[in-house]
Write a structure and sequence with these properties.
The protein has 157 residues and is an alpha+beta fold. The chain has one domain: OB fold (Dihydrolipoamide Acetyltransferase, E2P) (Beta Barrel). Helix content is 16%, strand content 46%. Strand 4 and strand 5 form a beta hairpin. It starts with a helix and ends with a helix. InterPro entries: CheW, CheW-like_dom_sf, CheW-lke_dom. It is found in: Cytoplasm.
Length: 157
């Protein structure tokens, strides 16, 4: 029993369209309301621009666009999850950030090859929590090497 507690991880659950996604807490620095985003020319269409977050210029990715979903207007519920991956800080625009849940590592199943138009390359796995299905985001893939170069360029600008 003590062993199952040992392999539990905290996950921040957020919404995109009507689905729930999660990202591990250790990859999240903060959750912010959407502030003024400065557009940076000649970047991928899913990169909204940059924000000045407490003196740090942080690139912002529209996660809906990155996952090939239709765009949505920013509302009072919209949040920016400031995530850190490989020492790189980036903001992810999500429809809302719901809560923090504990999941056990052995409850994570591999992602099926197709999940309703969302490319599974960005999904690390799926976990069931009561009647909820939470797709765990693979931050490394969302911020692939090719995109890291674009984002790093933005941080230099």
């Amino acid at each position: 029993m003590a062993n199952s507690v040992f392999n539990e991880q905290k996950v921040i659950v957020f919404q995109l369209q009507d689905k729930e996604y999660g990202v591990f807490v250790q990859n999240v620095k903060s959750i912010e309301k959407v502030d003024h985003i400065t557009r940076v020319p000649k970047t991928a269409d899913y990169i909204k621009g940059v924000i000045n977050l407490r003196g740090v210029v942080t690139p912002i990715i529209d996660l809906r666009k990155r996952l090939n979903m239709p765009e949505k207007e920013i509302t009072d519920q919209t949040r920016v999850i400031i995530a850190v991956q490989n020492e790189m800080e980036v903001g992810l625009i999500v429809d809302s950030a719901n809560d923090v849940v504990d999941i056990s590592e052995d409850s994570i199943e591999p992602a099926p090859s197709v999940i309703e138009q969302v490319e599974t390359e960005f999904i690390k796995g799926i976990t069931k929590l009561d009647k909820r299905l939470i797709m765990l985001l693979d931050l490394e893939k969302v911020l692939s090497k090719e995109n890291q170069r674009v984002i790093e360029h933005e941080q230099v600008v």
